[in-house]
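Example 9 (inverse folding). The structure is encoded as follows.
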């Protein structure tokens, strides 16, 4: 989404720059500005239609809470009442919907009020074919309005104006209706309500209005009226308050600039023909095409047609837990085929994932490091691998290495959520760098509050403990033969079902299972899901790869039945 907005911002800046050219007519400027304003959906659709290079990505292991592990280390011995801070701010999405609702409500109010006012106005025959005239009390300058049909609203004194003045006014407002400026003004106002947060949208829309007025001025001159006399008519019409969302002859634009443009004999004034419209639209689309492709793979080398089926078959073997066969196929591929840097990275990524599933974390770390050394792997895979390496090193107790990897991940992360900050806090905690740990933890909690995300009670327990250690200098130790309950150490992010992703469906699955004395998940079953039968299979495939610190009774690990966990599916 951030990349999409950046592309859209670039387009708006380009069309605003184009509007400053003196060698282009106002009609063409107006068209280019309109195309730029409404280019956001086009950029999105173009990005969806442009295929990205083929590469495989796999669920990465996520350490959710592991500040105490089976290898020992410090743990919290002082407990504090942990409650979620009150007064959580409104979610950004809810805030956006609320503000957008206010803008749209105001837009709808203006449309309805103007339509009702025109409907109640006195009919007037303007002798203009296909256009209805309406006399409205209270307005001081005419304006064009049109949703289903063209309407020109005029002041009560309009029929008392000199004939020449009336002719110029009708020529100008008729030009607005021929160009569909009135309808475009209504539609663009609604569009701006949806994108109220982007200042360039309002700037472009205001510039569109100004160029539309100049384009109609050019059409008036094309009808044979004198520029000087036309300028005098513009100055003679008093500018007053007009109903919203209308295109008025003497409103909404800089009158001084319009008059200077009228009297400038060097400006281009050619009207918009079908040929000129088509040429401008095609040139604009040609400019958009390469911009839409940015971020869809860039210079990343795609996986070749010969290699991709092998990697997909390996994924199928992994899903069937046939790990030895999968590794044999991958090593054979590396020995017999000439792989690109991206393909080599994908192979190492799969090897590392298999080692992870086999609980062989040292070999997994080595494979993932080799994946990072491969030239040309996708940025998304590189980013994921950095975080995976941080977590694997954490579980292995290599906290300095874990901190180094997660710091590299943060350097590349555009908008990290609360969990990575908490992970850094946990890593710093293990290194006994308590003030830095508390700082990162507070950043994670602040990010969670900003996003309206759930705050884990364990995060608040850690914050209370860090404050205690910093204030007193006392740190507890894990009792050697104490009792403890199960603790989630590693979770595997589920693979989002493609159909649900395509439909934009989100939900969750509650799974019940037994944690073995070795920390493995046994006999998982779905106890609740929303929506039903959509994410069940993906949740079960993910949960069986979870790893727990087992329940300890009298100093010995035991099986724990009836453990429940919610697997959430959200589209980030």
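The amino acid assigned to each position is listed next.
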């Amino acid at each position: 989404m951030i990349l999409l907005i950046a592309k859209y911002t670039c387009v708006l800046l380009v069309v605003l720059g184009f509007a400053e050219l003196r060698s282009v007519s106002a009609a063409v400027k107006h068209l280019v500005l309109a195309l730029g304003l409404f280019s956001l959906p086009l950029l999105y659709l173009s990005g969806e239609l442009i295929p990205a290079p083929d590469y495989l990505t796999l669920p990465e292991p996520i350490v959710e809470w592991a500040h105490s592990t089976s290898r020992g280390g410090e743990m919290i011995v002082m407990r504090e009442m942990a409650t979620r801070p009150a007064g959580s701010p409104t979610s950004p999405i809810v805030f956006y919907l609320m503000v957008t609702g206010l803008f749209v409500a105001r837009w709808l109010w203006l449309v309805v009020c103007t339509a009702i006012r025109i409907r109640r106005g006195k009919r007037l025959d303007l002798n203009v074919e296909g256009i209805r005239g309406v006399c409205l009390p209270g307005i001081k300058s005419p304006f064009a309005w049109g949703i289903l049909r063209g309407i020109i609203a005029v002041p009560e004194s309009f029929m008392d104006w000199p004939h020449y003045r009336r002719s110029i006014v009708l020529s100008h407002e008729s030009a607005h209706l021929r160009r569909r400026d009135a309808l475009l003004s209504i539609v663009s106002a609604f569009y701006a309500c949806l994108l109220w947060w982007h200042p360039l949208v309002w700037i472009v829309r205001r510039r569109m209005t100004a160029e539309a007025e100049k384009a109609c001025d050019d059409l008036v001159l094309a009808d044979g009226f004198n520029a000087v006399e036309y300028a005098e008519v513009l100055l003679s019409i008093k500018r007053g308050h007009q109903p919203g969302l209308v295109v008025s002859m003497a409103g909404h634009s800089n009158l001084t600039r319009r008059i200077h443009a009228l009297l400038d004999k060097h400006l281009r004034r050619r009207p918009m023909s079908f040929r000129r419209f088509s040429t401008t639209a095609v040139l604009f689309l040609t400019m958009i095409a390469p911009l839409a492709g940015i971020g869809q793979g860039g210079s990343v080398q795609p996986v070749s047609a010969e290699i991709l089926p092998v990697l997909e078959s390996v994924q199928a073997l992994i899903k069937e837990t046939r790990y030895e066969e999968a590794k044999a196929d991958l090593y054979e591929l590396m020995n017999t085929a000439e792989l690109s840097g991206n393909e080599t990275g994908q192979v190492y990524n799969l090897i590392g994932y298999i080692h992870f599933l086999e609980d062989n974390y040292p070999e997994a770390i080595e494979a993932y490091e080799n994946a990072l050394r491969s030239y040309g792997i996708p940025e998304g895979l590189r980013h994921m691998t950095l975080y995976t390496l941080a977590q694997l090193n954490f579980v292995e107790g290599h906290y300095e290495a874990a901190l180094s990897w997660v710091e590299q991940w943060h350097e590349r992360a555009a908008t990290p959520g609360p969990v990575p900050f908490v992970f850094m806090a946990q890593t710093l905690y293990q290194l006994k760098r308590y003030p830095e740990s508390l700082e990162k933890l507070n950043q994670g909690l602040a990010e969670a509050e900003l996003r309206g995300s759930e705050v884990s009670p364990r995060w608040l327990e850690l914050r209370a403990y860090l404050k205690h250690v910093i204030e007193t200098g006392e740190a507890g130790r894990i009792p050697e033969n104490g009792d403890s309950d199960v603790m989630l150490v590693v979770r595997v992010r589920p693979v989002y079902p493609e159909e649900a992703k395509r439909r934009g469906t989100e939900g969750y699955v509650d799974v019940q299972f037994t944690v073995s004395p070795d920390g493995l998940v046994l006999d998982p079953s779905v106890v609740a899901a929303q929506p039903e039968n959509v994410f069940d299979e993906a949740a079960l495939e993910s949960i069986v790869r979870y790893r727990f610190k087992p329940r300890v009774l009298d100093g010995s690990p035991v099986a724990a039945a009836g453990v429940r966990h919610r697997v959430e599916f959200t589209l980030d």
